From TrEMBL:
<comment type="similarity">
    <text>Belongs to the multicopper oxidase family.</text>
</comment>
<feature type="domain" description="Plastocyanin-like">
    <location>
        <begin position="231"/>
        <end position="311"/>
    </location>
</feature>
<dbReference type="InterPro" id="IPR011707">
    <property type="entry name" value="Cu-oxidase-like_N"/>
</dbReference>
<dbReference type="InterPro" id="IPR002355">
    <property type="entry name" value="Cu_oxidase_Cu_BS"/>
</dbReference>
<feature type="domain" description="Plastocyanin-like">
    <location>
        <begin position="78"/>
        <end position="192"/>
    </location>
</feature>
<dbReference type="Pfam" id="PF07732">
    <property type="entry name" value="Cu-oxidase_3"/>
</dbReference>
<dbReference type="InterPro" id="IPR001117">
    <property type="entry name" value="Cu-oxidase_2nd"/>
</dbReference>
<dbReference type="InterPro" id="IPR011706">
    <property type="entry name" value="Cu-oxidase_C"/>
</dbReference>
<protein>
    <submittedName>
        <fullName>Bilirubin oxidase</fullName>
    </submittedName>
</protein>
<dbReference type="InterPro" id="IPR008972">
    <property type="entry name" value="Cupredoxin"/>
</dbReference>
<dbReference type="InterPro" id="IPR045087">
    <property type="entry name" value="Cu-oxidase_fam"/>
</dbReference>
<dbReference type="GO" id="GO:0005507">
    <property type="term" value="F:copper ion binding"/>
</dbReference>
<keyword id="KW-0479">Metal-binding</keyword>
<dbReference type="Pfam" id="PF00394">
    <property type="entry name" value="Cu-oxidase"/>
</dbReference>
<feature type="domain" description="Plastocyanin-like">
    <location>
        <begin position="363"/>
        <end position="475"/>
    </location>
</feature>
<dbReference type="GO" id="GO:0016491">
    <property type="term" value="F:oxidoreductase activity"/>
</dbReference>
<keyword id="KW-0560">Oxidoreductase</keyword>
Length: 477
């Protein structure tokens, strides 16, 4: 049995389920009436948030060289010591020695080549989440980098600007590897987006949000059941502050939690959403609360320009405070948020319709897609290159009542409907990952272009995909 080999996941899962992974995610859905989120109203101090550490911004990586118009990078995959609790370092698995891996900043039309060297004593590999890449460069779950080996991935970046991320995708161990730190930002910029004059440079800040279980010794605990992951890390730091100027900022929010939804509010300040997983929305959308789950990205612009020096705004989840913005200075601001951003590509004409279900088996130890655990030797869907398809994705987890998420490799999709109703604001734009609550069906549409070969689709709760909640399509000519 495919999922049977996943010792860590099997040990982890029952407790995670018993303690209801659904509990947190249920509270975090966007389906409740607006204003019911507790986050915004909670006093940070009451919940013990210290805001003693500054939020670091992940280091932007410099190419080792640029040759033939390609940016070439080298990143070791290695263990490092990292102190979640000051003075108490703990081992983590990292890209380049950093708990939040170095940010790769790419440009539409300029290829990137990254050579990863696996210095761990376990297998790894690298998937560029949200990218349109050849199958050989996708980080296929069985396509591994052995300890001591290297692999070069080629990313052509033939897609519009977007916030992507890279992470381990080694089947059965992706959950542990990502939990232990194998995650980083990969941001694509494009000229059309630059022409909009959105906040940029030091005012364009990637923010990775995830949970973790950190014990009293400062140790990153694994295996870890979901309810014990009570520490929310923001760029690797629990409850940090971030000093901002009284002007506009672009924040690229990325959720890398293994199995975690956040429902965010910003102390009454509007969050103007400009992009989702696959890039810009057609027009900015003012949000008062944002729900996003594992793997999703939301780019927002926050305008602090009318806020007095000394004012503070807490970004909160329903579980408590996450990050405090402190307005500490003035700064010039010539950026803007135009009323029109970028039109979404026209929806093609679908010719195929398929059904996808996600659930656990009755034991709770095996994840299933269409009632089967992932088998790399089985092709679940054969998709014709060039085809536009509609997939009806249903969470059939009536026994466990667990939320799931749906992630598609290779292409961005659009959510056409959610349980027959219009998609929510959280579903807007070009998406590659969405939340599907128990009993819900979402209808998504995608067009499969250019590349052939096998690509996975799966629940992006990596605790679930690692025990089988994954399937694969093969794109054929
Ligand atoms: Cu972010 Cu198949 O993964
Ligand atoms: Cu992906
Ligand atoms: Cu799941």
């Amino acid at each position: 049995m495919t999922a049977g080999g996943v010792a860590g996941g099997v040990a982890l899962l029952p407790s995670a389920l018993n303690t209801r992974p659904s509990a947190s995610a249920t509270e975090h859905t966007g389906h409740e009436p607006a204003g019911s989120a507790a986050g915004g109203g909670r006093a940070a101090a009451a919940l013990g948030a210290s805001f003693t550490q500054c939020m670091p911004v992940p280091q932007q990586l410099t190419p080792v060289r640029r040759s033939d118009g390609t940016d070439v990078y080298r990143i070791p995959i290695k263990t490092a010591q990292y102190a979640f609790t000051p003075g108490k370092p703990t081992p983590v698995r990292t890209f380049g020695g950093q708990f939040v891996g170095p940010t790769i900043r790419a440009k539409t039309g300029t290829p990137v080549e990254v050579t990863f060297t696996n210095q761990l004593d376990v297998v790894s590999n690298v998937h560029l989440h949200g990218a349109h890449n050849a199958a050989v460069d996708d980080g296929y779950p069985m396509d591994l980098i052995a300890p001591g080996a290297s692999r070069t991935y080629h990313y052509p970046n033939k897609q519009q600007g977007a916030t992507l991320w890279y992470h381990d995708h080694s089947h059965g161990s992706e959950s542990e590897n990502v939990y232990k730190g194998l995650h980083g930002f990969y941001i694509i910029d494009d000229p059309a987006e630059a022409a909009l004059n959105l906040p940029s440079g030091q005012y364009d800040v990637p923010i990775m949000i995830r949970d973790a279980q950190i014990d009293a010794n400062g140790t990153l605990v694994w295996p870890s059941s979901v309810p014990d992951r009570t520490t929310v890390l923001v760029n690797g730091v629990a409850a940090p502050y971030f000093q901002v100027a009284a002007r506009k900022y672009r924040f690229r929010l990325l959720n890398t939690g293994n199995e975690r939804g956040f429902r965010l509010t910003l102390g009454g300040l509007p969050m103007v959403q400009i992009a989702s997983d696959g890039g810009l929305l057609p027009a900015p959308v003012t949000r008062t609360d944002i729900t996003f789950t594992s793997g999703e990205r939301v780019d927002i612009v926050v305008d602090f320009s009318n806020q007095p020096i000394g004012s503070k705004f807490v970004l909160s989840d329903v579980s408590g405070p996450v990050l405090r913005f402190d307005v500490t200075r003035t700064a010039a601001d010539t950026s803007r948020v135009p009323a029109t951003l970028r039109a979404l590509p026209a929806l093609g004409t679908p010719t195929v319709e398929r059904n996808v279900t996600m659930r656990f088996d009755d034991s709770g130890n095996v994840g299933l897609v269409n009632d089967q655990a992932y088998d790399p030797n089985r092709v679940d869907f054969q998709v014709k290159r060039g085809a536009t398809e509609i997939w009806n994705v249903t969470n059939t987890d009536t026994v466990w009542g667990a939320p799931h998420t749906f992630h598609l490799h290779l292409e961005q999709f659009r959510v056409l409907s959610r349980d027959g109703a219009a998609p929510t604001l959280d579903d807007a734009g070009r998406k590659d990952t969405v939340l599907v609550m128990p009993g819900e069906t979402i209808r998504v549409q995608a067009t499969f272009t250019e590349y052939l070969g096998k690509y996975p689709f799966h629940c992006h709760f990596l605790d679930h995909s690692s025990i089988g909640m994954m399937a694969q399509m093969e794109i054929v000519p």
